[in-house]
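Aim 2 progress update. The chain analyzed this quarter is reproduced below.
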Amino acid sequence: MRLFNLICLFLGLVIPQLLTAQPLSADKLFTNADNAMVKLSPSGDYITSYFRDEKNHYLDLFKVSKHKSVSRVNLGNDNALDGYNWLNERQLYLNIINEERKISFVGELVGEKIQLSRIKTQGYLVHRLPKQANKVMFAKRRRARSTAYDLYIIGIAQLAKGDFEQAYQVDHDGANISDYIYDEHLERIITREYDEEEKTFSIKYAALADGEWHRVITLKDDEYSFRTVHFLDEHTVAVLTDKDSDKMLLREFDINSQMFGKIIYQHPKYDITAASFDVNGHLAYVTYKKYGLTQTLYFEKDKAHFIKRLAKTFSNQEVYVIDHLAKKKISLLYVNGSTEPGQYFIYNQQSDQAKRLFVSFSDLQDLSFSPSEQIAVKTADGIEIEAFLTLAQEIDHSTLLVMPHGGPIGVQESDRFNKEVQYYASRGFSVLRVNFRGSSGFGKAFAERGVGEFGQLIEQDIMSAVNQVTKTHKFKHMCAIGASYGGYSAAMLAIKHPQLYDCVVGAFGIYDLPLLFNASNLRSGEEYRERIAKTVGDFHEGLIDVSPLYLFKKLKAPILLIAGREDNIADFEHSNRFKYILSRSKHPVEFMFYQDTAHGHSDWQGDRHEAAITSEFLMRTLQLALPAPETLSAGSKQAIANDFANIADGYTGDDNVDNDQEKAVLYYQKAAAYDHARANFNLGSYYHSGEQLPLDLDKAATYYQKSAALGFASAHGRLGRMYMEGEHFAQNWQQALIHLGKAQELNDSPSNNIRLARFYCTAPQAYKNVPRCLELMALRQYEKRSKASFNAAVREMSKALVWIFAEADLTEEELKLVKQFTIAHYELTATDVSLENIVQGAFQYHESKSFGGNGEFRLVKPDGRMNKYNRDKTLHLGVLFDPDIPGIDGANERTAVAARWFTTTADGRREYLQHKLLYGAPIGEWDLLYEIYDMDESMTMTLEIYDLNQNRLYSKEYQIPPQILSDTAI
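Predicted structure tokens:
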């Protein structure tokens, strides 16, 4: 009965909703997990996790008895949690990455909150030493940037203070040690040392009591696998190794004789990936991977029975016991599978109940996914291989994507949740993946069978799986798609079977096998060529016969090539050459070559963009119809809209994609048709500026209003500003407040907050609220968010203050508040300022002729009127002046002026170009200059300068004729 209750509870929590799958959002799929690094506290009272949302990163404290989060430590959006450990029931050790620097902290549980104290000493935690109260083993860096560490046993309180005076130092030579491990059972320190010259690594150990070091073994780095698991006694170690064995197995190793002993455990089919022993030295469990999912085999009867129950409950899913407290009889579980992105449970052995804690991806928890079918395939030469077929669901384009994995040696497909597979399956594509020969997890012989089989037996294995699948499932179209080796394999499959494949997508692929051996002088050396040979086989002229570059005439299918220009694994030249030869022969080839990108993307946006352009290529090439917007759920409609918007973003704002504004507009229009809020806003901006689309403020306003109705904060912000300034619309303070307030409600970004602040300072008396204005501008609130947020707030506050000093109708008391705010933020000492020695007109900048000298702006047109000027010289309009304050101008004094540039249109409206608050010491020359670009029509530009008492100190109009750029000097 208890087992039935457990299974029923689990089933109620983890079985996906029986919904039909529609397009899934790439933005929700290709992203970090909300919860990660989940751990039990030693008391079992709390669970901690690394929690991330759009605004910040946190260390979350979850109270088990309350079954809810009770507090969070705000780590800041600029910081990333690199790892942490519970030291005891009340203290933790954390590593945080800040701008590529690792900073360590001790966390103290006070009440139900964690308080952090920074550790000033550089180093890392080796072990928490549970047998020594309030002490830890810590590796302290000898000096800045050193790779050598000194090893200490130190009190936690002393570590937090950086006080090593009373710490016990373990005697050792740490010059070549890359890491330390502590064996709690025998109280031994274990090290792994690498010798760069000899290309060997050595495993050594020392008992904590005497500090004398002993060598376990020294190996060539590629001789065979050897990983220590547990000291069975003083001289015998349990190791994972493939020495004299096809599979990784667990066996004894005698240190004194340097001989391998009896095999402790081996699996007949799979490599052992991990093992653990209990406190009495008995084997507790081993793990291996079946269909890519970790399987745990427990040898204790109770635990083995429990794991069987879990396996039955979570069929075809991976269940990890990620933490366990034997005394409390509770376990922390993690579940993952082809249709399960990840969930965490806590299981209480005494009550025999499990409760779900939280999910890995909150945005995915209410969605359904396409299950994978695990397939056993017999190859032509009788080898059994694994394959995974994921069928399209509600939307089905009757298209099979054959997706070879990378590597090809030492990589393995699995039945875990696969973001890429789910992305394509939800869009109507079925996906086939194969663990062909060479894949990892099946032993050395299976891996070695893939060496040198590029374009040969590997592709035959894939086709064996394709043939088996297509006997029971019929498809109208078939395409090959893959990355790295998968890109090569996709091309070769279409070359070898042109009648089957209708299109190809190759990402970061290799297409010229001889080039692998001689891409550069560095890569033509013997050592490098030997390493390549372990995958490709020895260099020989026959490699040309299995290189897509030289077989391009046999390729019939259209192809999309994706590559990173900085790729040093599959050199960019592979894709570039293949693209060139295909283009020259008029073969249908498209390409996306990413700038500043290596062998794959460094952020999720790159993955989203790649998925979107790939999906769009497949749909367009196969002439497949997109589902009509009205047939889709809101989430699925947004998913398709996001794809088009991601493509458009690449063409207009992504440094890694070559700009193409025409394509950007096209894809924003496609996204807008599926109600993408930001795409509608961007189209409005194009009409507003007259760039890419004809200037049309009516259309701009229409797109802004549609975007605002779809809940886009920036659209509300834009409309609010237009109503506030009387641009296009008649000035309407009520409408301005509605839109600005909604923008701030939807997204309290610095720009939205401070635009609303400007409203409260400049609006008529009925709406004015100066204290609220200053509260929204205060920088302290943004300092806590991130550097980017703070810097944006500084810029926005500066612009808003110019508006206020130039436009606001303030009472004497209100002006006093604004001045006090400005004085405090800019540390001003004087607000009464005048302008002296004014030089105004058109200027050109001249570099200094002396090395290291300062250049200068030289006046070329005193009245600012000009007809033509030298195209090679950038022109600036404006004024140079000396600021003057009452008394003696000193370097320690600080003052400020508020300046703005605007144009006046033919109908008398103002369009503001720039707001700038200048501040600093009133010594030397200040400038307020605006750089002029090529103009298509005449215009009048005005510069105004105000002091902080709202006195206008300067005003000047500049007449700009059309097309002022010329190749002739003034």
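The radius of gyration is 34 Å. The longest strand covers residues 834-846. These observations will guide the mutagenesis experiments scheduled for the next reporting period.
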